[in-house]
Design brief:
Layout (H helix, E strand, L loop, with lengths): L2 H26 L3 E3 L4 E8 L11 H21 L4 H24 L2 E7 L7 H24 L1
Helix pairs in contact: 1-3, 2-3, 3-4
Length: 147
């Protein structure tokens, strides 16, 4: 895929994910909405790196995020990639950018989806996880069918 088309697709995906993630975070500020015994939307300030797990060192978390996002950009720029790999890479990138923006602006990431006993998460986290799963699937599929 040519670079202009890659940039266009990436920009659209990133804009959509950033918009939805930031809108949902804004809508839940200081709210607690119980849907059922296993699902609720609860405003939470997360200063930890991932799903509330890990170090509270915001500088280290920001540095790791910037390095990972930089590696994604480098990988996209240096490789001719199929759309089936570009979309999940942009999903991971957009989710990472949105959460990084929260850390830089607020000092924490807004998390609000509480599902069962799983750590609280947000829309950006969902995009990151789905993107990583799709990338893993693509890699495993290519290994299996290249043999």
């Amino acid at each position: 895929m040519n670079k202009k088309k890659t940039i266009l697709i990436g920009s659209i995906i990133i804009a959509i994910i950033l918009f939805i993630d930031q809108l949902t975070k804004f809508m839940i500020l200081d709210k607690n909405i119980v849907i059922s015994d296993f699902l609720e939307f609860t405003f939470t300030k997360n200063t930890n790196p991932s799903f509330g797990i890990g170090s509270n060192n915001i500088i280290m978390t920001i540095m790791v995020n910037v390095v990972i996002l930089g590696l994604i950009i480098k990988f996209i720029k240096e490789n001719e990639l199929e759309i089936s790999l570009l979309i999940p890479l942009f999903m991971v990138f957009a989710g990472g950018i949105s959460n990084l923006g929260d850390r830089l602006i607020r000092g924490y990431v807004v998390e609000f989806v509480k599902l069962f006993d799983f750590p609280i998460f947000n829309f950006a986290d969902i995009c990151i996880i789905i993107g990583v799963i799709l990338i893993g699937y693509k890699i495993i599929k290519s290994i299996i069918f290249e043999r």
